[in-house]
Design goal:
- The chain has 171 residues and is largely without helices or strands.
- Helices cover 7% and strands 12% of the residues.
């Protein structure tokens, strides 16, 4: 039976990693490559601050990603995550975390350890309410939670004193 997906484009991923390592790219964009795992070569780019992994087939991230302590932006939009990988919880510098379009991803209260988050993307992940970990993020100013099944705001929403943007369209 033929696969419905193109094989992962590991060669293109390698080229993008090389471009970053040679200083020709300010961020690491490995989106749209159909990756099922991150190339080991990426480990050499631990100084990067933006990691864009949209539109792949990732279900987990390697433990060594916790070495990326300068990482401030992590875009995991449209993959196959069922839970937030444990290494993400060790990325204390993260300001932006996008987990949108990972249907059914479990959003544990342990995400509250990411106290520097200012923006969280959780669009189309089959939520029926805003996850409670959000209330423990003192710097949070933007929540993208559209295309879920949220019917009411939690009583604690006014505790998010920095919140400027709350996207709930198509709930």
């Amino acid at each position: 039976m033929a696969s419905r997906h193109k094989p992962p484009n590991v060669a293109e991923a390698g080229s993008r990693i090389d471009a970053f390592l040679s200083g020709k790219s300010p961020e690491m964009d490995l989106s749209g490559l159909g990756l099922i795992e991150l190339p080991e070569r990426l480990r050499d780019a631990s100084a990067l601050d933006h990691l864009i992994l949209f539109d792949n087939r990732l279900e987990n991230l390697p433990a060594w990603l916790e070495e990326f302590q300068n990482l401030t932006y992590l875009y995991l939009f449209r993959n196959r995550f069922r839970a937030v990988p444990p290494c993400v919880l060790k990325l204390g510098s993260l300001r932006v975390l996008d987990l949108g379009r990972n249907p059914g991803v479990f959003l544990s209260d342990s995400l509250a350890v990411l106290a520097n988050l200012t923006e969280v993307g959780i669009e189309d992940v089959r939520l029926t309410e805003l996850p409670s970990f959000l209330r423990h993020l003192p710097r949070l100013d933007s929540i993208g939670a559209g295309e879920n099944e949220i019917t009411a705001l939690p009583s604690w929403i006014d505790e998010l004193t920095q919140l400027k943007y709350l996207h709930l369209r198509d709930n």
